[in-house]
């Protein structure tokens, strides 16, 4: 199925050099489509993390980095974008081998990643301070925006480089240096990225990539005294641990966590477009995306017909080798993820849900070595059931019906999560009413799973803290300094406070 290649040995990237882990230990990286080991990833430890932070701090304080003008930083980021574009196919192949997602999906991601670096390259020299108007005109008060220092980026396995890019493009443009820790399941593409980054001309130590397990390396990174900010994408429980760790040093965090996003289809929608949007929302990437539209709400008057058609379509989805252009759905990324999917489908049926499609692994012997699970649609679901409240992170859609707009808003918002939501309707007024009423960081109307560097992204409620992307994200990697200059020769009474307004 997937071509056999020699097993690759990776090294970490610290202080501009590719280095072995201090303990000489490695983690096996397995191809989820074949079950074959294809790479060895360094299993870093405390010593490696310390080295990476020291290198990042040293670089941050160096003349070479600190005196680099924002325009020149922007130029380097543009050069990086060009280099990434040239290497898109190689990076996409690496990610597919590592997490089993379709090659065409990963190539699509690699082709858009450069635009994030270009967007923030353009912003690097447009960060301005302000002049504060004071009543006391002899005092000149202005603000400076300065970088934070070293930013720790901890990323998940589902879209490793895209997630890292959301963080690093803005953090670098703001003038910070970076320690990146990718998921232990999909570290290869971040190390391949480091090779490309190394050629671009950033000072050594601007980016450092330390690999290893979350409970060890990730834990040490998130509470490291040299981390000036921690930006994290992953599961909600880990996100909480990271926030607690960072709080021990009063370090700020941005958290991008899970979701249980509603996809809402009204009877007046273009139903063909809605069906494609629902399928894309839950079965593309095997449902392994934080924005998966895993709760489908269909208006009752069209529900039977819409669901029948959806079920037919789900049963036709082609599973297989993620490298093949004909494949529509690849495997789960890890054995643990596959077990989680199976566990949740069992919980759902125990609670009364009915399997309308899938609900098991495929019986095709061609797929037996991979971590495949059939596209699954569950009917007879109530929103209070665990399958409708907890994130599965797999190709499992819960279907519910509704009668009124008010009812569906309540159901959609009845969730601890609030990352994204989809609305399908041709009623313009309703679409805007719904967009305001839904508790979600992103609301898509008559579309799903789209994004752009300029469009802010992040979660309400337990889906996260802070926003990535967009203009504001660069300020999240900066701090503001207020400068007050007395321009008169007046000598002050040292024992009184002077207000300036
Ligand atoms: O994520 P983890 P996992 C959800 C999804 C999935 C669940 C678990 O529901 O089933 O999370 O996935 C690092 N201190 N999402 O186990 O553990 C880890 O090494 C510091 C949603 O893969 O949260 C990795 O680099 N770091 C999500 C990163 O955290 C720690 C995407 C994420 O891993 C750590 C992925 C610790 N104690 C999963 N423990 C999304 N929002 O897109 C682990 N890590």
The third-level CATH topology of the largest domain is Aldehyde Dehydrogenase, Chain A, domain 1
Beta fraction of the residues? Answer: 15-25%
Tally of separate helices: 16
The biggest beta sheet is recorded as: 7 strands, mixed
Low-confidence stretches: none
CATH architecture of the largest domain: 3-Layer(aba) Sandwich
Report the radius of gyration as a whole number of Å.
24 Å
Instruction: Specify the structural class.
Output: alpha/beta
Average pLDDT, rounded to a whole number, is 97
Sequence of strands across the biggest β-sheet: 15-16-17-14-13-19-20
Small molecules bound:
ligand TXE
Estimated helix fraction: 25-40%
Describe the overall structure.
- This protein has 501 residues and is of the alpha/beta class.
- The protein has two domains: 8-257, 3-Layer(aba) Sandwich (Aldehyde Dehydrogenase, Chain A, domain 1), CATH 3.40.605; 262-445, 3-Layer(aba) Sandwich (Aldehyde Dehydrogenase, Chain A, domain 2).
- Helix content is 38%, strand content 20%.
- The chain contains 16 helices and 23 strands.
- The strands form six sheets. The protein has a seven-stranded mixed β-sheet with strand order 15-16-17-14-13-19-20, with helices on both faces. Strands 10-9-8-11-12-22 form a six-stranded mixed β-sheet, sandwiched between helices. It has a three-stranded mixed β-sheet with strand order 1-5-4, with helices on one face.
- α3 (70-86) packs antiparallel against α5 (103-124) and α4 runs antiparallel to α7 (188-200).
- The longest helix is centred in the first third of the chain and has 22 residues, at 103-124.
- The mean pLDDT is 97.
- Ligand TXE binds next to α8, α9 and α12.
